[in-house]
Structures are given as C-alpha cells and as structure tokens.
C-alpha cells in the first residue's frame, strides 16, 4: 500500500520532495507524542518540532476550529486576534524588540528579515554557517548551504564553521564572523547581516557553551551589519531553559524569525524586530502577506502560547531533556558507535562514528534511524554529512516516553552492531 502511494505521489508531485525512511510512513492520525499509520500502528514521535505541544493538542484544535467557523479570510481588515498575539509575543521578547510582522512560513520570515536588513544597512553581504538552512525562497535558499550544490550560494554570501566546541575554542566563532565580514568588505560588499539558527540544527546541533553568540553579534555590528536570530527551530521553549534560543546566550538580536511550532501544526510564522529597522520602510516600499497573521493563524498561535504556560512544557523539556542526555551518554559509553551527545532541553544531537577511527559514519546513522523506524520510534539524522542523530520530541515527552525511547534505541544498537 505504501508503495502504491509512493508511486502515485511521484506521478503527481514530481521528484523534488523527499520522504523520510527507507520504508516511508503513511501517517493518518496523531495524538500527543504518538503518530498512527493506516493500520493503526503507533509510532513514538521523537522528531517532530511542529506539533511541539503534542499532536492535535485539544486546546489548539478547539481554538482553530472555533475561529475557522467564525471568520477565515485575508488580512486587510482590522482584527483583534492578531494584535493580542503580537502583544503576547512581544511580552516574551527583550524590550528593544518592539514590532512583529506575520508571515506563513519560516522561509518568508527570513526572506523579510533579509529585505529589511538590506534596506536598513545599505549592504547586501550575509554571513551564515557552513551547513545552514534558512528556507526555500530564492533569496534564503541562496544562504542555505545545506541545500547542496544544486542551489548556488550568492556571491554576497560568506560561510563560517559552526561553533563546534570539540574542534575550536568558542572565541573562534566570533573571530570567523569578523574575518568573513572583512572578506566581504575587501570585495566591495557591505555586510548586512549575520543570520544563525541559535541551536545550529542543520550544522549538527551546537548549543554550547551558552555565551559564544554575543561576541559574534558584536563582530557583525562592528562591521555595520545586523544580527538575525533564526528561532524557527529553537523557539517556543524547545531548549527548556528559555522561550528563545538566543536568550541562553545573553544576546539581543536585531531581528528574530520564528515559525514551525508556533501554531502546533497550523502554518503561522513571524519576524520580530527593533522598530527602527522598519521605520520608513512603509513609505519606500510595502509589505503584504495575504495569509500572514490571519485570524485562524492568530488563534492557533495564541492557544500555543497559553498551553506553553499552562502546562509548563518548558520545565518538562528542561528536566526530561537533561535526564535523557545523561542516559544517552551512558548508552554511548557502552556502544562505541555513539560519540558526543549534545543539546539543550528537548533538542538533542548525537554523533555516530566509526568505532575505531572515530570518523563520522552517516551510513551507520542511517541504519539507526531506519532501524528505529522499524522499532516504531521516529527520529532523523542531520549535520553536514548526515551522521548526527537528531532527537527532538514534542515538549510533552515524559520520563516514561524517554525510557521507552532508550529501550528501543538500545535494541536497535544491539541489532545494527
Ligand atoms: N530556518 C530554519 C532554522 C529551519 O529549520 C527552517 C525549516 N526547516 C526554516 C528556517 C524554514 O521554515 P519553513 O519551512 O517554515 O519555511
């Protein structure tokens, strides 16, 4: 049946989209941390950071359904839902961040950030990490090296190594940013921005030490550019300690993009920024996004903010995540295929390596990911070579779920050798 669907999908959607797993899943229902396939088999979701509060959280479902039944249209009328959402979001952000502009996807939020950064600085140079992903529009795809050689980086883009503490001192990151900015200037390109995912997910999950970002932000500002925090992955409590990944680093970005878990499955995203950066923009140019901040999206995102607080999901992510990392380190000590375990809250990366040479082993990582899928646990792999296991369950993952996860990954490690 899956094979039939894969063929049908290929026939109508074409070859550009990829599915997870050697045996793709046909998921028909989700509830809490569980996903169910067409046969009713339950899969433990240890990957999904869209349904971050658990699949089909009743409060979000109810808010979306209620609003969809009342009004669902474009965004050219006054509506209070979006204002309440903006006020609530801004209350979670540093004081200097005074405006929020709504989009439908993280890509659009980053695209807008770029456009505003170009306008505010008069520059066009952008610095990103070596395996960054910032989205699919042509502008942000040109600063997403993880998309591979099929999407060439712009001539105005420079890359810096991700802050891998095992390979370089933390000061190295800011120094690399300063050098990249100087290289842009040498080529007659004015630096406009440093844009980073503050947990460096596609680079391989680098969350620590939690203070290396501030000097990097200083370095880009000294060169006349802005610091943009891409919070699409770490935002909304994922890191446990804080609502936003950049808060762990004690740095205030000029702009902050957010999306993914913002609507717990409903598409809603945004760019929050220092008000000065958009002043005058309205006179020179306009921005309109038909569905950005529409009433249903606002209802979903408001419900998400309420649930994060009411159910203390951040505290859960912090304690369950810390314990899980500890247990995974104990597992890594017994299975030499596993290397360093990194992360914050419920965002965890584990290196998979050749047991003798300690070289990255993406093939073994793939075997573990697919083995877990057969054991009905869902994770993925990331990093420049695809050798980093990415474990990122819904924030309502309990100690019992973590114990089940450990039991299954251990049996897969035993079976895959
Ligand atoms: N930035 C980061 C760090 C992301 O991980 C993603 C999505 N994977 C995006 C931006 C783009 O978001 P979207 O797919 O909603 O456009």
Automatic annotation (TrEMBL):
Named cofactor requirement(s): pyridoxal 5'-phosphate
A molecular function (GO) term: transaminase activity
Gene3D superfamilies: Aspartate Aminotransferase, domain 1, Type I PLP-dependent aspartate aminotransferase-like (Major domain)
InterPro entries: Aminotrans_3 (IPR005814), Aminotrans_3_PPA_site (IPR049704), PyrdxlP-dep_Trfase (IPR015424), PyrdxlP-dep_Trfase_major (IPR015421), PyrdxlP-dep_Trfase_small (IPR015422)
Domain of life: Bacteria
Matches recorded under PANTHER family: ALANINE--GLYOXYLATE AMINOTRANSFERASE 2-LIKE (PTHR45688:SF13), PTHR45688
Record family assignment: Belongs to the class-III pyridoxal-phosphate-dependent aminotransferase family.
Protein name as annotated: 4-aminobutyrate aminotransferase-like enzyme
Organism per entry: Cereibacter azotoformans
